[in-house]
Each structure stands twice: as structure tokens, then as C-alpha cells.
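// run 5 | inverse folding | seed 20
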């Protein structure tokens, strides 16, 4: 196991959320990737964060622990049952219900309803089919200097394999390339967990 994964420690609340995700067959961010999310939220003094893909609340807890004490996490997921679990996990982690805005629905239906330039950080942990639309929406939703984080850009280790031509890998490659070549983003890939494409919106 990489040192970055063992360096990031998780308390019983996070361990419980993670085990619930495993029981449901849900992928969730690794401890190292979670610690990066917390770091980015703290570095940006984030008050307003959007998470696309609630799951059982693992990444949400990491984000909330890095955000300002008065910060609000808006988290979107199509699975209402998963969000019910996450809501309970957030409370058990010591966060007041007012710290989270949990929205059930498809991200592509919800994102257009969110306010322009109102967010400090957006974390995309969605199906690769939604990457393009989510990153496009992030450009509108983030304030200048706001941070976009897209999970899963290693594409299961296939991202650097030229023989890998499946739809998911091609979609990830296109997203990474688009962000890297855009003058509107300053981007880097952080090799924690499943790979985090991280980009700062230019002012």
C-alpha cells in the first residue's frame, strides 16, 4: 500500500461510512484522496462546496472537515437511500444538519439550478459519462480561484495504456486533455486513490 494511503488515518466514523459503502458495493475515495480533499477545502478556506456523488458520506466528511465552520456542503446523488445513510453519518460525525444541503436527483438536472460563481470547490465523483457536463458546469459555478476536483482519472490504471479504447477510458482522456489545454484552468493530476484531476479556475 502506498505511504500516502497509510499516512492518512481515518477515525471510527469514517471507517463505518467506508464499510457501509463496501456493503452496498459503492466505490468511495481512498484515505489519501480524502486527505487531499480536506487539504484543498482548508487551503481555499472553503465556505460553499458542491459534491457530485454523495455515496455513504465518506468524501463528504473529508470535505466538511476541511471547510470553514460555517461552510455548507451541497451534495447531489440520484440514490435517495444512499443519501439517507450519508445524512446519518454526517450527524454522527458531529456536523449540524444546517452544514449539509442534500439534493436527490441527477446531477445534470440539479447543476443548472445552482448559482453562478457561488462555490469555492466542486468535487466530481460521478459516472465518467457525466464528466464533460460536470466540468463544464464547474466553470460556471466556481468563483475565480475556485477548485475543481474530478475523481477517477487513472481510469483503473488504463489511462496510460494506448491499447485501452473503452468508452470510459476515452472519456477520461478527453476530460483530462480538455482541462489541460484550456486557458481557463490551471491543472494538475494528483495520484492519490483513483487519481484526482485538480484544477483552479483562472480569474
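// decoded
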Amino acid at each position: 500500500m502506498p505511504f500516502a494511503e497509510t499516512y492518512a488515518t481515518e477515525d471510527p466514523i469514517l471507517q463505518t461510512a467506508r464499510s457501509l459503502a463496501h456493503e452496498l458495493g459503492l466505490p468511495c475515495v481512498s484515505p489519501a484522496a480524502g486527505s487531499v480533499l480536506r487539504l484543498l477545502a482548508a487551503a481555499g478556506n472553503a465556505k460553499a462546496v458542491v459534491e457530485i456523488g454523495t455515496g455513504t458520506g465518506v468524501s463528504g466528511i473529508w470535505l466538511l472537515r476541511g471547510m470553514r465552520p460555517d461552510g455548507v456542503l451541497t451534495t447531489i446523488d440520484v440514490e435517495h437511500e444512499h443519501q439517507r445513510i450519508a445524512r446519518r453519518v454526517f450527524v454522527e460525525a458531529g456536523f449540524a444538519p444546517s452544514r449539509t444541503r442534500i439534493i436527490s436527483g441527477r446531477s445534470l438536472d440539479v447543476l443548472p439550478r445552482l448559482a453562478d460563481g457561488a462555490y469555492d470547490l466542486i468535487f466530481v465523483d460521478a459516472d465518467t459519462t457525466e464528466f464533460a457536463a460536470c466540468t463544464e458546469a464547474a466553470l460556471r459555478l466556481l468563483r475565480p480561484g475556485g477548485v475543481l476536483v474530478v475523481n477517477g482519472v487513472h481510469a483503473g490504471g488504463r489511462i496510460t495504456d494506448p491499447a485501452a479504447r473503452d468508452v470510459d477510458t476515452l472519456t477520461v482522456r478527453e476530460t483530462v486533455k480538455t482541462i489541460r489545454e484550456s486557458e481557463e484552468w490551471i491543472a494538475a493530476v494528483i495520484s492519490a486513490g483513483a487519481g484526482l484531476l485538480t484544477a483552479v479556475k483562472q480569474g
